[in-house]
Amino acid sequence: MSNRHTIILMQTSQSRATRTFMDYDSISQAMDGICGLYERKLKDLNPATGNITYDIADLYNFIDGLADMSALVYDHRLRAFLPYDRQWIKQKLFQHLKKLAQ
């Protein structure tokens, strides 16, 4: 996943006050950031557990449980950000984690 500036837009609940964004230099870094966000949530929910494991379905459920998540990825050819939905994010996460597992 090439070095394409990626912004993850996220809203954790129905409240507009929970809207936020995360800014990354590449799609790969953005996928790491989403995994890190989920892992921090798991650690907050399970503070006494030393080693936390999860599978892709758990990560997908986390993403689906958010009020909204989307990505803006810079296209150098168009000189513009292109929008992508949470389904695209889930596909990129799968590809990213599969690559890391090899």
Give a description of the structure.
There is one protein chain. This protein has 102 residues and is α+β, with helices and mostly antiparallel strands. The protein is built from three helices and four strands. It has helices at 27-45, 56-65, 86-101; strands at 6-11, 19-24, 68-75, 80-84. Strands 2-1-3-4 form a four-stranded antiparallel β-sheet. Strand 3 and strand 4 (80-84) form a beta hairpin. Helix 1 packs across helix 3. Keywords: Cell cycle. InterPro entries: EHR_sf (IPR035912), ERH (IPR000781).
Number of strands: 4
Class by alpha and beta content: alpha+beta
Poorly predicted runs are none
Order of SSEs, N→C?
A: EEHHEEH
Mean pLDDT: 94
Oligomeric state of the chains? single chain
Give the biggest beta sheet: 4 strands, antiparallel
Range of helix content: 40-55%
Gyration radius, in Å = 14 Å
Strand content: 15-25%
Approximate shape: globular
- Helix run count: 3
InterPro entries: EHR_sf, ERH
Keywords: Cell cycle
Function: May have a role in the cell cycle.
Protein name: Enhancer of rudimentary homolog
A few lines on this structure:
44% of the residues lie in helices and 25% in strands.
How is the topology of this model organized?
Blueprint (H helix, E strand, L loop, with lengths): L5 E6 L7 E6 L2 H19 L10 H10 L2 E8 L4 E5 L1 H16 L1
Antiparallel strand pairs: 1-2, 1-3, 3-4
Helix pairs in contact: 1-3
